[in-house]
Amino acid sequence: MTFLSKVKGDGQCPDPGPSRLPALLPVLDPAVHRLLSDDGNRLATLTNQYGSPLNIVFPHILGQNLARIANAFDRHAVKSNIFYAAKVNKSHSLISAAVSCGIGVDVSSLFELEDALVSGCDGSLICASGPAKPTDFHQKLIDVGALISIDSLEELYDLVALTGNREQGHRTRILLRYRPINASASRFGLAPEDMPEALRFVAQHSGDLAFEGFHFHLGGYAHENRVQAFCEITEWVRVAADLGLSVSMIDIGGGLPVRYVEPDSYAAFLAVQNGDHYRNGIVPRSFYPYGGAVDATEWIDRFLLAVGPEDMTVGQYLRATGIAIGLEPGRSLADQTAISVFRITRTKNLPDGTCVLFAEGSSFSACETWFASEFLVDPILISAAVPGQANAGEKPENGPVRAYVAGHSCLDEDIISNRLISFTTKPQKGDLLVYGNTAGYQMDLLENEFHRVPMPRRISISADLATVQPDDQKGTSR
Question: Residue 138 CA to chain centroid, in angstroms?
């Protein structure tokens, strides 16, 4: 195996040469860089053993991400309670890594809860933030002493009905999930007009409910929106205090930004792209901010230094009240913790001079095109050819080419990348396409067994790259 896109020592791929667009070079963790630095021989062996697509997880990197996030709060002397959002990825080794680091786990289903418990997470460190919890999920959360985020008055009433059957003195821990004014169209959370009734009900059932604070979750990555929602919450902190309810935590949800490519390259790409750069002639209306100027730690700094309630900064308010900030990072804790490898089964020339690369795998394992968007990170091409030896029956074309990537299914929509990606050398059958940083909602959000093809395999690899083990069945990574 040889690289056709070499990996630089700084952990990025080089510019792929002649290109009509700026290259979107993946930022890579040093451990990932080391794995890719043996000319792809290790990847070829693993792909031959486990199949394509292959998801390779680096669980130790989660601890590095956690340290940066926790240190950001420590610099401001703000107490933090961090819960790994298990929904971001189905890897059991990532949950185990979070538990080993001593943080909690945010779960949204009975199955995620059971996985967290099997991984050794204490029930008191589990937070359940899902909006539609069935009775068996509620019951298990109560039994293990988890913290439950209440999404509606109806859920609150249901929970008390269950809690009332418990032995005297057993109180169910709760947060009230608030729907901020700037998210009024959302179906999630308690609307402002419902919050007084919710707080009165909690106060009236203080023998059954242990109220710990408030929770909100907003889409997008603007810290200003979170500051506004935080300020709204502080008004309810006062209302709660008047009812004899003390607040120990305000949970601001997840949504810390992650940087996949360098900001300058990303901005340059967005500035010049047009329909000619996509196989379907359509520029997606929105993208994840893959090359945002603000990373997770700077986002935390901006949030805590923003002017908040009572002319104090958010950080000053938290220090003055002793309230802890709650946080449910998913993508930002999983940043750089996985790569996905697709093997090319065929390269097909198209009349317009471009070509399509058929991958052994589908876009169900690379989800952005299903959301009418794109994963704006260039794949790394690794050649299967042995230097100096021609493949039998093949006549490699070594010139540069623009190509999009399609899955193996019979669906026209099975497109891994509509974007026409520039390659310095035309990819061939058996070559590998390596996508960096795919752990965050990318590699397994939509995976299924269409055409009866088995689920893609997932393996975890140790920090020294010496130990590989399956990571796609419960218990195998623990």
Answer: 25
Task: Tell me the range of 29-43, 150-164, 381-395 where mean pLDDT is highest.
Answer: 150-164
Which tokens hold the place of 408? 């193996």
d(CA 233, CA 179): 10
What is the number of alpha carbons within 13 Å of residue 4 lying toward its C-beta? 26
Give CA–CA dist 147/82, Å, rounded.
13
Torsional sign, CA 62, 63, 68, 70: positive
Rounded (5°) CA angle 206-116-73:
70
The H or E element spanning position 165 is: none
At 133-153, the pLDDT tens digits run 999 999 999 999 999 999 999
User: What are the beta bridge partners of residue 464?
Assistant: none
β-sheet bridge partners, residue 209: 172
132-167 b/e (C-beta count within 10 Å ≥ 16 → b): ebeeebbbbbbebbbbbbbbbeebbebbbeebeeee
Do 331 and 295 meet the contact criterion of CB atoms below 8 Å apart?
no
Contact in structure between 352 and 402 (CB atoms under 8 Å): no
Q: Which residues contact 422 (CB under 8 A, 6 or more apart)?
A: 16, 17, 18, 19, 20, 21, 23, 400, 401, 402
Whole-angstrom Cα distance, residue 395 to residue 422?
20
- Residues 417, 426 contacting (CB under 8 angstroms): no
Q: What is the pLDDT of residues 100-130, one digit of tens each?
A: 999 999 999 999 999 999 999 999 999 999 8
What single DSSP character describes residue 417?
E
Spell out where 194-239 has E strands: 209-215
Residue 408, H or E segment: none
pTM metric for this prediction: 0.92
Instruction: Tell me 367's DSSP state.
Output: G
Task: For residue range 370-420, list pLDDT tens digits in order.
Answer: 788 999 999 999 988 755 444 444 555 678 999 999 988 887 888 999 999
H/E segment holding residue 406: strand 401-406
* Residue 3 bridge partners (DSSP): 382
Report yes or no: 8 and 19 within 8 Å, Cβ to Cβ.
no
Contacts of 70 (CB under 8 A, 6+ apart): 80, 82
Among 341, 342, 382, 379, CA closest to 359: 342
